[in-house]
Amino acid sequence: MDRGTKMARRRLIRVEVSGESMLPALRPGDWLLVLAGGRVAPGDIVVAGHPREPGRLIVKRAAHRSGDGWWLESDNQRAAGRQDSWDFDAVPDRLVRGRVVARYRPLARAGLLRRG
């Protein structure tokens, strides 16, 4: 695969945070830019398809590689309704949509999110 083809697969997608599982880093109502197809490293915040609920996206922190997927964890393990790899095991690579690169809303909290 040439570099042009690789770059064509990368695009920005927008997602809104709901729930409190990623407090304090992310709050309900935060809007994020996600680099689809971007390389994921431990500590990155990522967006993935929920492995048990097709069509539902989750925002979690990539803790580590596990087999053919990523172990994804909530920052706030005490959040009501929290679901992560402790509940459904590692998330297959094919379900990881990309890594979060920035928050753009609310404007008072806008900015790039640091890797790791």
Summarize the structure.
The chain contains 2 helices and 8 strands; from the N terminus they run αβββββαβββ. With 116 residues, it is mostly beta strands.
Specify the biggest β-sheet: 8 strands, antiparallel
Give the low-pLDDT segments.
1-5
Give the count of helical stretches: 2
- Using the alpha-carbon principal axes, give the shape: globular
Order of helices and strands: HEEEEEHEEE
Rg over C-alpha atoms, rounded to the nearest angstrom: 14 Å
Descriptive tags:
8-stranded antiparallel sheet, 2 helices, mainly beta
Structural description of this entry:
- This protein is mainly beta and 116 residues long.
- It is built from 2 helices and 8 strands, in the order αβββββαβββ.
- It has helices at 3-9, 85-88; strands at 11-16, 31-36, 45-49, 57-66, 69-73, 91-92, 96-105, 111-112.
- Strands 1, 2, 3, 4, 5, 6, 7 and 8 form an 8-stranded antiparallel β-sheet that branches.
- The radius of gyration is 14 Å and the shape is globular.
- The N and C termini lie far apart (28 Å).
- Residues 1-5 have low confidence and may be disordered.
